[in-house]
Structure formats: C-alpha cells, structure tokens
Design the sequence.
C-alpha cells in the first residue's frame, strides 16, 4: 500500500451473504382453498399445480413454505398476502422467519 498520499485501494476478500427469510403460510379452518391457491399464484408466481401442492401441504401439515427471499422482499410478500386476505375477510396468516 502506498504511503505517498495516493488513494489507497484495498481489495475486499470476504463478502457477506444476506440473511434469507422463509415466507410461510399457516393453515386455518375458514380460508377457502381456491383463495390460497390464487394467493400462491399471484404473489409467489407459482403454477396452478405447484400452488395446489403447497396449499394442500399447508392444509394437512399446518404450515408450508411459499418461498425464500431477502428481508425486504419477504416482508413485502407477507404484507401483500395479509392485505389480500383481510380485504376478503379471510383469517389467512402469512409469516416470515430466518432460514
Ligand atoms: N384449511 C382450509 C380449508 O379447509 C384451506 C387452507 C389451506 C387455509 C392453506 C389456509 O394456509 C391455508 N378451507
């Protein structure tokens, strides 16, 4: 490194991988299956087949992963799902947790 007053340049070797978050759907007894499939297609870009598979997994197991994203994208998806559900009066819950 120069000590003559030149700009000093240091190569950063280590990079930090951003923490990823799982976006999860929770089961309930009231939200229509069709609505959940629609949410998965609209906000998580799933095919109808994949959306149906995820919805049924949540229905049977209580919880399921919709996708894994950086914090702000996960947060946006949770908000979009919660807003859409509230608009239709469904109790559907969507949460995020660190992967
Ligand atoms: N259990 C709901 C029903 O029988 C369907 C459902 C699936 C609800 C997934 C929420 O995240 C959910 N209508």
Sequence:
């Amino acid at each position: 490194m120069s000590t003559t007053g030149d700009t000093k340049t240091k190569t950063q070797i280590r990079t930090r991988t951003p923490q990823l978050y799982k976006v999860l759907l929770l089961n309930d007894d009231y939200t229509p299956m069709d609505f959940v499939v629609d949410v998965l297609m609209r906000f998580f870009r799933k095919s109808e087949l994949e959306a149906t598979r995820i919805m049924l997994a949540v229905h049977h197991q209580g919880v399921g992963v919709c996708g894994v994203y950086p914090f702000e994208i996960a947060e946006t998806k949770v908000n979009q799902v919660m807003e859409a559900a509230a608009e239709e009066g469904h109790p559907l819950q969507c949460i995020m947790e660190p992967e």
Observations:
- The first strand starts at residue 20 and ends at 26.
- Strands lie at 20-26, 63-70, 93-98.
- Residues 54 and 64 are 7 Å apart (CA to CA).
- The chain has a mean pLDDT of 92.
